[in-house]
Amino acid sequence: MIRSFNPPVRTLMGPGPADVHPRVLAALARPTIGHLDPAFVTMMDELKDLLRLAFRTENALTMPVSAPGSAGMEICFVNLVEPGDEVVVCINGVFGARMKENIERTGGIPIVVQGQWGRAVDPNQVEETLKAHPNARLLAFVQAETSTGASSDAQTLAEIAHRHDCLTIVDAVTALGGSPLEVDAWGLDAVYSGSQKCLSCTPGLAPVTFGERALEKVRQRKTKVQSWFLDLNLVMGYWSGEQKRTYHHTAPVNALYALHESLVMLAEEGVEQAWERHAHHHRALRAGLEALGLELIVPVDERLPQLNSVAVPGGIDEALVRSRLLQHYNLELGAGLGDLAGKIWRIGLMGYSSRPTNILLCVGALANELS
Ligand code: PLP
After folding, report:
1. Which long-range contacts (CB under 8 A, 24 or more apart) does 237-244 make?
2. What separation in Å is there between the alpha carbon of 37 and the centre of ligand 1?
3. What confidence score (pLDDT) does residue 339 get?
């Protein structure tokens, strides 16, 4: 007979999901109510305010999509790209490549700025590409490339985009709550994230925010958005505060309690304090890794604090080390992807995982396994 599933208790220090805070897990277990219940609707309004705080924006259209980060990516592309549109997309890892795939599937024409894995997007390359393609009206890039640990300068890239009359689509799945992100001050137009990284929440929700310029572009569409579920015009009917909420889909009620709780915790800590905590713990982890003779592959000023890519020393079977860490310490580290498969470990310090005991466990366990 198949019995109830009781997962092992792990310490999650990979690329996400990160450790979920006990307060968030407790919120998930609260009684399910109807998704049009007045109490739930009040919670949704608070959730939108809390997301605005996290994204640092006043954007009215700020909400969680009821699906994982990839759906956050998709809602941006299916609404902002029409068949035949040229879109400049920066690829310096797995998720830039996924953006390109989205552009192709919406009938857009991707113009690729090919970057190096493990490096930030090069603003000069972006400027040259936008000059060479004056018809492009969108620039898409990943602020925090989880596949490599490289952080790109979203503010500078947005400035360049606007100089060339382009809007920006920004992947902030790993950035939100973990490193500086200023949607309004940097003029970012459409930004998406995920619940499972630096927000200490469970996977499965995609916070998004759209500025007025992006919404105007959606209103000006000549063609219908090909996805029913992700059509912003329809989703807004449910999430918008101005009009009476209409049924669109059954909201993942308990998952939204969890996101609400994680954002309440972020507000209690302070957004800037959360960025500083991630930076501080990154420095502590780095010191521990360097003491073991391990090296981070991303240049110092392009490193993400929340995702640390470590070069696997020669002669070490990286998969064996990870499986021993899981078996003996219940500790999960991430493997390299794509070009970096087999060459790096990815050590996440995201959200509730970004705390001193995790760093001690990780450095101690690696010291033991590598000695
Ligand atoms: N973008 C980035 C930078 C990510 O790290 C991830 C997930 O790891 C995604 C997009 C996709 O998010 P999800 O796996 O929740 O669909």
Report:
1. 239/44, 239/48, 239/61, 239/63, 240/60, 240/61, 241/45, 241/48, 241/60
2. 31
3. 83
Task: Return the pLDDT at 160.
Answer: 98
Probe target for ligand 1 pocket from 90, 95, 192, 195, with the most ligand atoms within 8 Å of CB: 95
* ipTM of the complex model: 0.99
Task: Mark the ranges of the chain whose per-residue pLDDT is less than 50.
Answer: none
Which of 65, 66, 70, 170 to mutate to test ligand 1, by most ligand atoms within 8 A of the CB atom? 70
Distance 1 CA to ligand 1 centre (A): 35
Each residue of 269-316: pLDDT tens digit? 999 999 999 999 999 999 999 999 999 999 999 999 999 999 999 999
CA of 291 to the centre of ligand 1 (A): 31
The tokens for 143 are: 């602020």
* Smallest CA separation from ligand 1 atom 13, residue: 69
CB 147 within 8 A of CB 118: no
Protein residue whose Cα sits closest to atom 5 of ligand 1: 146
User: What is the number of the ligand 1 atom nearest to the C-alpha of 15?
Assistant: 8
Q: Let me know if 282 is exposed, middle or buried by CB neighbors in 10 A (0-12, 13-18, 19+).
A: buried
